[in-house]
Design brief:
Keywords: Membrane, Transmembrane, Transmembrane helix
InterPro entries: LytR/CpsA/Psr_C
Protein name: LytR C-terminal domain-containing protein
Oligomer: single chain
Strand content: 5-15%
Number of helices: 4
Strand order of the largest sheet: 2-1-5-3-4
Number of strands: 5
Structural class: alpha/beta
Low-confidence stretches: 77-87
């Protein structure tokens, strides 16, 4: 076979048979491959970063916000329940702080005195004992009427009501003093059992705190 020298090679390369010299250096191909790999890696990083940003501004942020809202609701519920319980306990007087006038509106003799004696044993102070005023005498068909000043509506009257089942609680406008009246009616049999009445007073003095549900977000 003939041997040829390509133009411009200055006799450095010779062609022998069907073998030809590489005209392009190997470095260019390596650089091309590296460039392609770098481009693919860069595109992957950009896509991953985009997904992370979407997650932060949508799903991820919502979860953190919901958790924060739940903690805030728990704190608000605890804060609203505790002061209310304390205020209610302070408003409820003890039996020894309540003066009760006992009046008999029935035809049964001695009913007012017997009831007053039992109330005294339970710690109440006893004021007047006798027949009911004319406006109530023989006119109370129910168990009893508990009567007092407006200030007694949420203090003395509920405590006295623990001693008389199904008593009707009323207040008188302009009434002076703190004493309350127990007017015994035709349906009265006896006072509430002492153990039951004691539990009812304890419940008034120490109500179970309840969480506020006024806010729908909680």
């Amino acid at each position: 076979m003939s041997m040829l020298t390509p133009p411009g090679m200055g006799g450095q390369y010779r062609i022998t048979g069907d073998k030809y010299p590489r005209m392009r250096p190997r470095r260019r191909r390596a650089r091309l491959v590296l460039s392609m790999v770098a481009s693919v890696t860069a595109l992957g990083l950009v896509g991953w970063g985009t997904l992370q940003l979407i997650d932060v501004f949508t799903g991820g942020g919502g979860t953190a916000s919901a958790a924060g809202s739940a903690r805030d609701c728990i704190k608000q519920a605890a804060a609203s329940a505790s002061p209310a319980a304390g205020a209610r306990s302070a408003d409820v007087p003890k039996p020894a702080q309540i003066t009760v006038n006992v009046y008999n509106a029935t035809t049964r003799a001695g009913l007012a005195k017997d009831t007053a004696d039992e109330l005294k044993k339970r710690g109440f102070k006893i004021g007047d004992i006798g027949n009911a005023p004319a406006r109530f005498d023989k006119k109370v068909k129910g168990t009893a009427i508990l009567l007092g000043p407006a200030s007694a509506l949420k203090t003395s009257l509920p405590v006295l009501a623990t001693q008389v089942t199904a008593a009707d609680q009323r207040t008188e406008a302009g009434r002076k003093g703190a004493a309350v009246d127990l007017i015994l009616g035709n349906a009265f049999k006896t006072l509430t059992p002492q153990a039951t009445a004691a539990k009812a007073i304890t419940a008034l003095s120490n109500p179970t705190p309840t969480a506020s549900t006024s806010k729908k977000s909680c």
